[in-house]
Amino acid sequence: MTYKGSTDQPARVDEFRIGNYISGLCEFITNCETPMTIAIQGDWGSGKTSVMEMVKDIIDKNAVHCVWFNTWQFSQFNTADTLSLSLIDALIEGLGIGDGEQIEEMRGGINRLGSIMGNLGKRALIIGSDVLLGSSTTEEIKNKLEKLESDNAEKNLNQTIATLKERFQACVNAAVDKKEEMDRILVFIDDLDRLEPLRAVELLEVLKIFLDCEKCVFVLALDYNVVVSGVRRKYGPGLDKNKGRSFFDKIIQVPFKMPVAQYDISNFVKKTLDDVAGIKCDDNETKNFVSLINNSIGSNPRSMKRLFNSFLLLLKVVDKNLLDDNGKKALFAILCMQQRFESLYNYIVINRDSIGSKFFSRLVSEDIESLLTKDGFEFKNGETDEIQEFIKCFNRTITLGTSEDSISAEDWDRVKRLLRCSSVTATETKAPSIKKRPTFIYDGDTYIAQGANKMNLSNLALRLITDYAKETDKTAEDLMNMINKQIPCYTTVLKKAGLGQIADQSNPVIRRKGLLDFHFAGKDEIVRLGDKKLLVSKGWGAPEIKQLIDILEYGDRVE
Questions:
Q1: Pairing between strand 254-257 and 36-41?
Q2: CA 28 – CA 88 distance, rounded (Å)
């Protein structure tokens, strides 16, 4: 069957081999004491809805009656004031007990509660739900409400909520009694954490009225951090940080964190690569693709679907002459970089004609922060180590598993051609702000800012100074004084240093050429060329090179 892309619909089958978690959750739900509230916790796209769907499909329908409520869908058509009422109405509708007297009484209670909410506003429900936090805010609101004795709605609020809970319990009992084997109602409430955090917390406060009903198990899809954020917004940023946890713990008896780290994505990746691109992988090749994913976007199901959909699109866009099996694998590696490290991807796209294949070995072996920051590249916290681990996987994919340290010039040529047409799936629509790597051409050779060892700007500085020394009668001391006085050089070690900081990259190059007798003298590190002593800094950037060219009057010789 032709692969046509993945939608964002939840999966109904266990694609990642977490069946033991799902079956364990089903067994717990079926046999636990009631009332019980379970939180399915995880990031967006981690599979919370899929797990709930699979539990609903697997659970014994004779013993458990299931009700499903999607807060996200209802919130699109309900104001903040009426969302909680819609939830209550959907719950009783989902019980499936028809339109008898109990339902009418329940709906009458909902209308009564709606009238009270209209008079008092959403804060009124804080009293009925006992606020959970036990903060002084509750007493202050109660005191204010108690002064409004003329309003009968306010006087009767607590009684109305208590009556509503009793009527809901009666509806639950009626639903359970419909089947002899049935002993509980299972209520799924999905997408709570897609609401604005404050609204999510307010909905939980209302929901607390019903969470304590016998014969009910509630399963809520939410993220703990959303709850904490909502509590802080509702009660102020100065709230004790433990209060957010207290709120969560008083609502949730059983937290179930999505076992994303335990996802076995191998079969999913292997099958999808075959479906999408006709790439048939053995176990070792599959491991490398899995490693690419784990070191870039991670095993979040939604992120992986997005990755493979983008891959499918690029396969239809890219020149078919580039898409043999090796080209497809390289394209997939590029796409992983684009979706996780877009700044690095943009940097490579912009500089693809100048960085060369050795750039990738340098990303693995050198301090990449020093390597890239001069060109305006900005790292996020902790990103340097993540990039290096990803590049190792990237190199293994490009070289078909032969190396994680470097790629060949031939492999790099293929990557460059693929880069030209891969940007259509990039998230950023504006041109990236990364600066193009400065280049200088001297005597037919091209030198690049932070380029490969033999062609970086430190080597250009050394060559310019050396040639100038050979062509003039100036002493080494004259050169030192002339240059040091005019060019402040910046290094990764010292914020500001003179030319006494030797170029680490330059030394082995010069040594291989048999040109230097290197020694340390006082504060100055000196390169001795014949009878002349010259100083070189490792902090050469484009501005310093331009100053050096002016000092030496080489403007007509360097492009």
A1: parallel
A2: 25
Instruction: Give the whole-angstrom CA distance, residue 124 versus residue 145.
Output: 9
Q: How far apart are CA 255 and CA 462, in angstroms?
A: 63
Determine what percent of the chain is predicted with pLDDT higher than 70.
69
Cα distance between residue 194 and residue 495, in whole Å: 46
Q: What is the pLDDT of residues 393-427, one digit of tens each?
A: 999 999 888 888 888 888 898 998 898 888 877 76
Q: Average pLDDT of 58-85?
A: 76
Per-residue pLDDT for 555 more than 90?
no
> pLDDT tens digits for 486-512?
665 443 333 333 333 333 333 333 333
Q: What is the pLDDT of residue 53?
A: 92
In 3D space, the residue among 189, 232, 234 whose CA is nearest the CA of residue 84 turns out to be: 189
Burial of 35 per CB tally in 10 Å (0-12, 13-18, 19+): middle
Strand partners, 220: 39, 189
With the C-alpha atoms ordered 397, 401, 402, 403, is the resulting torsion angle positive or negative?
positive
Instruction: Specify whether the backbone of 508 is left (phi greater than 0), alpha (psi in -120 to 50) or beta.
Output: alpha
For residue 175, count CB atoms less than 10 angstroms from its CB and return exposed for 0-12, middle for 13-18, buried for 19 or more.
Answer: buried
CA 160, 166, 170, 175: dihedral to nearest 10 degrees?
A: 90
- Asked if residue 230 lies in contact with residue 200, where contact means CB atoms within 8 angstroms, the answer is yes
User: Could you tell me which of 211, 249, 191 has the C-alpha nearest to residue 74?
Assistant: 191
pLDDT confidence of residue 522:
30
CA–CA separation, 112 and 164 (whole Å): 9
| Signed CA dihedral, 537, 542, 543, 545: sign only | positive
Q: Would you call the peptide bond into 301 cis, given omega within 30 degrees of 0 as the criterion?
A: no
Picking from 163-172, 274-283, 520-529, which range would have the lowest pLDDT averaged per residue?
520-529
Cα atoms in the 13 Å half-sphere on the side-chain side of 306: 17
Classify the C-alpha dihedral 471-473-475-481 as positive or negative: negative
Return mean pLDDT, the chain. Answer: 75
| pLDDT one-digit tens code per residue, 384-394 | 888 889 999 99
Contact residues for 149 (Cβ-Cβ < 8 A; gap 6+): 155
Q: Look at 143-152, 165-174, 183-192, 325-334 and tell me which has the smallest mean pLDDT.
A: 143-152
The token duo for 152 is: 């009968």
Over range 539-552, report the average pLDDT.
77
Q: Where are the beta strands (DSSP E) in 276-348?
A: none
> What is the SS3 string spanning 180-234?
CCCCEEEEEEECHHHCCHHHHHHHHHHHHHHHCCCCEEEEEECCHHHHHHHHHHH
For 506-548, give the DSSP string: HHHHHHHTT--EEEEETTEEEEEETTEEE---TT--HHHHHHH
**Number of H-type helices and E-type strands within the chain:** 25, 10
What crossing angle do the helices spanning 157-177 and 197-211 adopt, rounded to 10°?
70
Q: Are 91 and 69 in contact (CB under 8 A)?
A: yes
Give the span between the Cα atoms of 288 and 45, in whole angstroms.
23
